[in-house]
Amino acid sequence: MKAKTIDRIMTGVIVGVTILIIAVLAGLIGYLLVRGLRHISFDFLFSPPQTIRAGGGIGPQLFNSLFLLVLTMIITIPLGLGAGIYMSEYAKPNRLTAFIRLIVEVLSSFPSIVVGLFGLLVIVNKFGLGFSLFSGAMALTVFNLPLMVRITEQSLRGVPREQKEAGLALGLSRWRTITSVLMPVAIPSIVTGTILAAGRVFGEAAALLFTAGMSSPRLNFSDWNPLHHTSPLNPFRPAETLAVHIWKINSEGLAPDAAQIAAGASAVLVITVLLFNLGARWLGRVLYRKLTASK
Amino acid sequence: MNLPESRSTADPAPPQTGKIAKHHLEEWRGKAYVYLCVLLLVVIIFSIVVFIASRGLTPFISQGVSIKEMLFGLKWAPEDDTPVFGALPFLVGSFSTSLIAALIAAPLGICASIFMTEIMPKTGKSVLQPAIELLAGIPSVVYGFVGLSVIVPFLRHTFPGQGVGIMAGAIVLSVMILPTITSIATDALRSLPAGLKEGSYALGATRWQTIARIILPTTMPALLTGVVLGIARAFGEALAVQMVIGNAPHIPHSLFESATTLTSIITLSMGNTTTGSLHNNALWSLALILLIMTFLFVFIVRLLERRVKRS
């Protein structure tokens, strides 16, 4: 009898903890949306920020975040795919592979601030790129690469062995088997993983403080020549992203409505991450159906 | 073709040689690309270590700061006439926030994973798992913002002190590392052979007895792996902690008083110091400590994983 009572109590405790976790999440999202949505308007999303007056927006920051995300993914995806293919298809089970695996693990557990500092030391100062979108993209690549490698490797490993053997038996080269037999099967989970990784990049700030910089020059949104200084598309200009902006106005914001701006910007950030999450699942399912003829 | 050394030269028929050479060329190209990517990865990590170590070691080697002073000194006054670099307050801040965060998050995360695997797998998969994934996706600055506008005022009203401090940092971090601990614990519990559990149930054990005496002891190393990874993440987290910890460079007397961590002092001061100055280099030393801690955490995780494999 006693054992059963304890069992019931402990089950209650575990269920209680679970409800607590869900409540924390619901409270968190609810708080952000309730406080933030009030402040989000067309004007807020597209107008430039104000330093000391109220009524500033987050237009350039939002654009910078998206642009930086695109730049980062352009660099990360090919490198991550390559290294991931090596890890799952070419790596022989020996000391060297174990060492590379260790390296990927270490790289993925580096604090993002350390990656940012490395970016400051090497990319910003040594390569002379200065505080720029491009430096930020390279730092984020370092930060994101291990994740991308792991996603690719796991997706390729998930492909049934027979498919690969069939490709090789047909006389295709190993590379051809990878690109035309394994990849189509693996793509849905690679895409899902990549979008989730993109969500992480979108919200990252610590690695960007000292690489992409904490200021945004006045942008001229009618000038789309990437070589001009004030053009939004110029990758060699300093750029403050949305996440960095939230941090900055919380720690040194002078505008009287800093708290509201932080709330609004946080809500935008969280909504974007939510969209990334949902989009990743949806796209993964759609691609899986399209590419593999299964239901 | 420009691949004369390929094995296809042994082939007698010339048209076929072209075909096979193309086949080899394709393979060779792919392989070269893949190896290049991996080489880049290796180069990146080595340059991170080399560059940060070279800057971080300068104060000890050529600028007369002793390692003992840095690790155990209580006073951090880099801009004084005789600058002092005692990083102990930051070490205390970093360790206490991440350990308290793990103390809060570990029971919660393990309970959540038991719920997902043993108690209500269906609800777990459809409600709790997405919730945990969502928690993992929320950016750290957002956690910092919520911590600053909800947790800090709450602590200020409930406990004596300013609200900011180690406890506020630990609470924010505990929510941030909850997903790490939960997902690793869940994987561990799911991979447990069903026979073990069934054996226990067949002996008449209740569910809790099975969980407490069979499941948790068997998966303990894996659960600890999750906790260590959580601590590692908490230790390296910069902005969320910086926003709620108050940033006073001394060891606080209570958990509710302003303190500083390694990451937050780096975040705050790195931008205001000139490259090459002693103050700047001392900050790089702190970064080097962070780096060494990362290696240590990876090492501990490896040790634990070896135990998982053996059992």
Report on this model:
Chain A is built from 10 helices and no strands. With 295 residues, chain A is mainly α. Chain A has a single domain, classed as MetI-like fold (Orthogonal Bundle), CATH 1.10.3720. Helices cover 75% and strands 1% of the residues of chain B. Chain B contains 11 helices and 2 strands; from the N terminus they run ααββααααααααα. Chain B has a two-stranded antiparallel sheet with strand order 1-2.
Percent in helix of chain A: over 70%
Mean pLDDT of chain B: 84
Portion of residues in beta strands of chain B equals under 5%
The chain pair with the largest interface is: A-B, 88 and 86 residues
Subcellular location (chain A): Cell membrane
Family (chain A): Belongs to the binding-protein-dependent transport system permease family. CysTW subfamily.
Domain ABC transmembrane type-1 (chain A): 62-280
GO molecular function (chain A): phosphate transmembrane transporter activity
List strands and helices in order, with pairings.
The complex is a heterodimer of chains A (295) and B (311).
Chain A: H1 2-37, H2 42-46, H3 59-90, H4 95-109, H5 112-126, H6 133-157, H7 161-169, H8 174-203, H9 242-252, H10 258-292
Helix pairs in contact in A: 1-10, 3-6, 3-8, 4-6, 5-6, 6-8, 7-8, 8-10, 9-10
Chain B: H1 14-61, H2 67-72, E1 76-77, E2 84-85, H3 88-119, H4 121-137, H5 140-158, H6 166-190, H7 194-202, H8 207-236, H9 239-245, H10 262-269, H11 278-310
Antiparallel strand pairs in B: 1-2
GO biological process, one term (chain B): phosphate ion transport
Membrane topology (chain B): Multi-pass membrane protein
Protein name (chain B): Phosphate transport system permease protein
